[in-house]
Amino acid sequence: MFKKFLPKETDFFSTFEKAALNVNKSATLLLEMMEDLGVSEIKAKEIYEAEQEGDMLTHEVMRKLNKTFLTPVDREDIHALVCRIDDILDLIWASADRTVLFKLTTPMPEAIELSKTLLETTEFVTKAIRCLKDKKYSYIQEYCIEINRLENRGDRIFREALARLFDDIKDPILVIKWKEVYEHLEDANDTCEDVANILEGIVLKHA
């Protein structure tokens, strides 16, 4: 009888998973764009739609957070996690948007490699977030190690990309354009690591 009056725990995990899958889908679209810049406008439109969906999912979590008394993990961790997931999506959209805005037409191998690394990283982010609901903390830790490894790979590709850009591209305007795209891709990879750090913090508190 008394249980009827206890506040129910709100399910945040399904929304987290939807948000992570949405990021992974956007990373897939971005890689397709970088491999074939002839479809840039089409892919950018699809990424923008995913970014809008991501904003709605973020707002959904915020609404739940404001109305929920009992939360499955600390409130500040829920807030930080959903915001950083949304940040990854914003950076993917920024990469796509700049590619279209700058009218980039020749694919760059480093942009493709950075996008591949980002896609792989978002796959591990999604796997880690899926483990939260069932409290599979050892799996989360393993996935976070992979995310950190991939972030290091992304750093290396980014440095090599900048070196090649300044060495091989003679048009300074083109250098500026690609440098900005590379920076957004690198920031997206870095933000995936931020998500991993939040997940590791949750594991330390609840394992």
- C-alpha-based Rg, rounded: 19 Å
Structural class: mainly alpha
Strand content: under 5%
Percent of residues in helices: over 70%
Please count the helical segments. Answer: 6
Mean pLDDT: 94
Q: Could you state the order of secondary-structure elements as H and E?
A: HHHHHH
Spans with pLDDT under 50 lasting ≥5 residues?
1-7
Dominant shape: globular
Q: Oligomerization state of this entry? A: single chain
What distance lies between the first and last C-alpha atoms, to the nearest angstrom?
Answer: 31 Å
Largest sheet: none
| Number of distinct beta strands | 0
Account of the protein in words:
The chain has 207 residues and is mainly alpha-helical. 82% of the residues lie in helices and 0% in strands. The protein has six helices and no strands. Helix 2 (40-67) packs antiparallel against helix 3.
